[in-house]
């Protein structure tokens, strides 16, 4: 990270990506752009999954469509993996620098002006990462219960509807999902507004709009995703 | 007023420090915070003890020399400099904890005095406007829109005290650096060099070991001059533009 001033000339030939990677602001742009990508993904992911309330036929057809083209599917998977990897690697590197920048903390007082969501964004992010790994093991890799991936509906398609229903029939698993969605709410309520500041697109005039977008959409994501889990728990999805 | 002070005492940057408790009795509520420490120091000298070292200079709120984290807040409970803070802002009988700015790039020199020359080195790296020498130009030769002049002036009110770094949970210097970048780049004379300036000052800021901005706004809330986060957004824009131009052109 310590890119010296004398090195600027040399770095100019090293390409934009390398320059981004080696500067604090550049890494914040990477955080912002990958964060925006992941934010858009979770919105699409939720909207797709909410089709569960329209019945098994609709959801299973949607799932089959997503997997119909191996090229598109693997392109999306690898792209997402790269985005997650960049987001987390940058976050950890930046956090490491931050920790070194304050070797001795304060003995007294409360943090100035910052909110709980802002101060815990790294922690919420790391727990969400653990959740993502579990989520993939649960529904994509079938490591938690291999029978979930073997379910088939009448037409021979993967029965995603029944997979979700059976997957959430364990209350411990369901509670973990809802807690993770709560952490996502916390994470996005700061992150989604913050990313526009990092990209230089926010100002005193627009900060209110971005804050409302962040908190509002984070709440919708929490409610939408949790609704699926709760609907299964209360037997509304059979 | 009678107060108890918990003061950070540290002999040098090499030695370990610790809190020492002092009794500050018969303090006038009309004293400034620094005058209160002067009184305590006077009494320490009379007792033959080492006085508390702290930074101060103009005591008018304009030089940026005074510091002190008071009960966890840089410059104390009011959004002003410590020299402009008066003891009436505290309650009789209160215990006040006084600490130095805490940041790796601001090593403690003694007690409450930290070395802020990292800021000077950032300014040296690009916080100026290069001018060809010659006769002084006419003051109004280059017209400056009023709105730009106002924004530049707002940024220029930064006194470089370092409260932003002290308040930030990451000890980031973004508010300071962005104030300097904004102040110069908003004016036509400084705009010419805005890209080189942003690249060099940010590189220097990183090199000095300051943390990164997580957009919490602590800096703005602690800044005695009310420097706005808008400056950070502006620097983020200028820097992005500069990076692209620097790598493409």
Give a structural overview.
The complex is a heterodimer of chains A (238) and B (249). By secondary structure, chain A is mainly α. Chain A has one domain (22-104, 115-233): 3 helical TM bundles of succinate and fumarate reductases. Chain A is built from 11 helices and no strands. In chain A, α3 (24-49) crosses α11 (207-233) and α7 (121-140) packs across α10 (171-198). The N and C termini of chain A lie far apart (54 Å). Chain B has 249 residues and is of the alpha+beta class. Chain B has helices at residues 33-46, 117-126, 146-156, 163-167, 174-185, 188-191, 194-208, 218-222, 230-248, and strands at 3-9, 18-24, 69-70, 73-74, 95-99, 108-110, 113-114. In chain B, strands 2-1-5-3-4 form a 5-stranded mixed β-sheet. In chain B, a hairpin with a 2-residue loop joins β6 (108-110) and β7. In chain B, α7 crosses α9. Chain B is elongated, with a radius of gyration of 20 Å. The N and C termini of chain B lie far apart (65 Å). The model of chain B has no long low-confidence stretch (mean pLDDT 95). Classes of the chains: A mainly alpha (238), B alpha+beta (249). The interface between A and B is large, with 53 and 58 residues.
Features:
heterodimer; A: 238 residues; mainly alpha; 3 helical TM bundles of succinate and fumarate reductases; disordered N terminus; B: 249 residues; alpha+beta; Ubiquitin-like (UB roll); Fumarate Reductase Iron-sulfur Protein, Chain B, domain 2; 2 domains; two-stranded antiparallel sheet; 9 helices; 38% helix; elongated
Question: In brief, what are we looking at here?
Answer:
With 238 residues, chain A is an all-alpha fold. Chain A is 71% helix and 0% strand. Chain A has a single domain (22-104, 115-233), classed as Fumarate reductase/succinate dehydrogenase, transmembrane subunit (3 helical TM bundles of succinate and fumarate reductases, Up-down Bundle).
